[in-house]
Fold this sequence. Notes:
By secondary structure, this protein is an alpha/beta fold. It contains 22 helices and 15 strands. The chain has helices spanning 2-8, 15-26, 31-35, 90-102, 118-124, 140-152, 169-177, 190-195, 200-220, 225-229, 242-262, 290-305, 324-339, 354-377, 380-385, 388-405, 441-457, 471-486, 500-504, 520-533, 549-555, 567-577, and strands at residues 37-38, 44-45, 80-85, 107-110, 133-135, 159-163, 183-189, 232-238, 274-278, 309-311, 463-467, 492-496, 510-514, 540-543, 559-561. Helix 9 (200-220) packs parallel to helix 11 (242-262), helix 11 packs across helix 14 (354-377) and helix 17 (441-457) packs parallel to helix 22 (567-577). The chain is globular and about 90 Å long. The relative contact order is 0.08.
Amino acid sequence: MTNERFLAGFPPVSTQEWEDAIRKDLKGADYARKLLWQTGEGLAVKPYYRVEDIAQLEQVRVAPGDYPYMRGARSTPGWRIREEISAAEPDEANRAAKAAVASGADEIAFRGVRLANDSDLRLLLLNLERVPVHFETADRSLLRLLKVYLQRRQHDASISTGWDPSSNLDFAAEIADASIPSLRPFTIHGEAFHRSGANAVEEVALCLSAAIDFMAAMREHGLSADRAANSIAFSFAIGSTFFVQIAKFRSFRMLLAQVVTTFGGNPECARTHIHAHTSPWNKTIYDPHVNVLRATSEAMAAAIGGADSISILPFDACYKSPDAASLRLARNTQLLLRHEAHLDRVADPGGGSYFLEAITDSIARQSWELMQQIEQIGGFRKASESGVIAQMLAATFIAKEQSVASRRAVLTGTNRYANPDEQALSRIDPVHEELLPRGAQSYETLRLRSERCIAQTGRKPRILLAEIGDPRMRSARSQFAADIFACAGLSTTTRQFSNGTEIALSEADLIVLCSSDAEYLDHASGLFDALIKLDRKTPVIIAGNPETADDLKRLGIADFVHLRTNPVQFLLRWQKQLGIED
């Protein structure tokens, strides 16, 4: 009764009333442009969600651990902390794995360990019988070795491999038919699609399509849907769009469960096994400790999204081999999320959020539609062989690259808010081989060029941001220009002036005039008159894109920098003008 009286003071407000209030406050501004978030997946995210947005979604009323598993493959919360071990020798890899487990890891992934025989395998797994183990770089000889090993002796925890079953379906059927309970021999690699440019919808759809091809092939080899489903796991990269990534994992579990049961599988065998690892795409050489923050939010998304295991890429992996400190920091990030943030206390903590449930459904619907389009082509294999998938991913990859280059997608410390005085050359391992594409590389190329040139010549270009005229506009434009130049490791000096003569008398290699559109022509005229009298040929740039651009060019303005400028091309052009070259 007390609660009812309290709530009576807050009468319900209809959606239409909210919409009317919003449109009134917008004062004629475009609703969609101002308030809808258009994601890279093509989702139009609304500014708010209400119960009616999810009223028709039956899956939101299913508990975690229940079919179709959108809210989690398990009824219990938590995830396993996976640590990768790169040692090649079995005894060394075993010692490293036991040390990682003692420090908090729950699962070990061996990458590149050399196993010649059963003795090597037994040495590798010594005292790890209760630890889930994954072999990332598996081949057929390793799978045969694991098959014999597990048929002869008990391994209390699961063993999995990263072997792609599509590479040899006959052999995959042979291994799956052995039906070894503790062995999950195959992985479908969603992160490979992510590296090629896939957004969340494409990643889900392509993994579904690959799974359908696999299930169909195993059926042709006489295997049951249950046995086929129990033999595969899925590996996903975790992108930077926090809520979209949470929804990605939830939607994939639900859709895969439908695929398995459509093939006649038992719902119990339709529980998806997902490993998630932080994406290398948004990691940066400059301001590298921001990578720790990026990885933390990504790991949070995977944990909330219900991943079974998570691995975090050490923050320095993009420029050198991770050392003990960075490996420990990566592991401790997950331990913090577990023991201090308590993300392992509740299964599907995002469940019931109108927003999250709505975008989970949107991703699921779009992914299912894309999967059906691939099936109409003939399935995953045919779509791959025909180049359809590569063409689709290439288009998304280019869009992602352009988004970073144009600074619509922000990489903090690299294409926005960069520290131009930061030095990175000394921490880059010259023999480090970078195999995976990253969004920051175009900007890092510019910055490393500046850093090398300045180190060799001992001279920094003098770039003057000359503020003049309207106080608000001159300040905003000088800050914008400073941020642009910092992305190439070029420091700037900001000063305020009252006339062109004062600017012309300044010692500078490049002048950036910062004012309002209406004032530019007058200030530029005064500046060039003064430069001519002083016989100076200092190039001048305008911070902005005024309607008088053609007149300004005739005066001698060398360039313009504004929101529509391609920053990478602009900075490359002015590096050359300022003598900064390889």
